[in-house]
Amino acid sequence: MESAKIIKKSSGGRHRVFTNEQRKVRNRQAQAAFRHRRNEHKKTLESTIQDLKQQQAVLEQTALEAIRRAEHSEKRCMALQAAYLSASRALQYLLPDMSGSLATSSASPDSCLSSSPSIEMLSSPEPQEFLPSIDEAWTDVLGEWKLHKIRK
């Protein structure tokens, strides 16, 4: 008797009743739409991966070039500094009357390493034609010394 007292309650809304065939068609359409969205998303991700790989290759090449140029500049700075110190010592020895002014302007051996190169320096072409070689710098110093001796 108690089973007869259970009454089905309605949920208050109207429910559509679909046939099995309609439900199967809708499920197939939903699955096809999902597969299409998934494939489109996959293609988008693969395209993004390819773009990022290309960007990474370009950035790695740019970084390697910047490192190479910075190392070249550091070596060049050290060579010029050595030439300068050698020339200033030669001038101090050869021209004792000017030794006070040269001693105050001598550079420290670590001045090339004290600051990192700026982005402008790294992105500009190497100005090799503007910088004299060590031999040219030494020749200029000796030439100045000879002119100074001739003038006296």
Automatic annotation (TrEMBL):
<dbReference type="GO" id="GO:0000976">
    <property type="term" value="F:transcription cis-regulatory region binding"/>
</dbReference>
<protein>
    <recommendedName>
        <fullName>BZIP domain-containing protein</fullName>
    </recommendedName>
</protein>
<feature type="region of interest" description="Disordered">
    <location>
        <begin position="101"/>
        <end position="126"/>
    </location>
</feature>
<keyword id="KW-0175">Coiled coil</keyword>
<feature type="domain" description="BZIP">
    <location>
        <begin position="23"/>
        <end position="37"/>
    </location>
</feature>
<feature type="region of interest" description="Disordered">
    <location>
        <begin position="1"/>
        <end position="41"/>
    </location>
</feature>
<keyword id="KW-0539">Nucleus</keyword>
<dbReference type="GO" id="GO:0090575">
    <property type="term" value="C:RNA polymerase II transcription regulator complex"/>
</dbReference>
<feature type="compositionally biased region" description="Low complexity">
    <location>
        <begin position="105"/>
        <end position="126"/>
    </location>
</feature>
<feature type="coiled-coil region">
    <location>
        <begin position="42"/>
        <end position="69"/>
    </location>
</feature>
<dbReference type="GO" id="GO:0001228">
    <property type="term" value="F:DNA-binding transcription activator activity, RNA polymerase II-specific"/>
</dbReference>
<dbReference type="InterPro" id="IPR004827">
    <property type="entry name" value="bZIP"/>
</dbReference>
<dbReference type="InterPro" id="IPR050936">
    <property type="entry name" value="AP-1-like"/>
</dbReference>
<dbReference type="InterPro" id="IPR046347">
    <property type="entry name" value="bZIP_sf"/>
</dbReference>
<feature type="compositionally biased region" description="Basic residues">
    <location>
        <begin position="1"/>
        <end position="17"/>
    </location>
</feature>
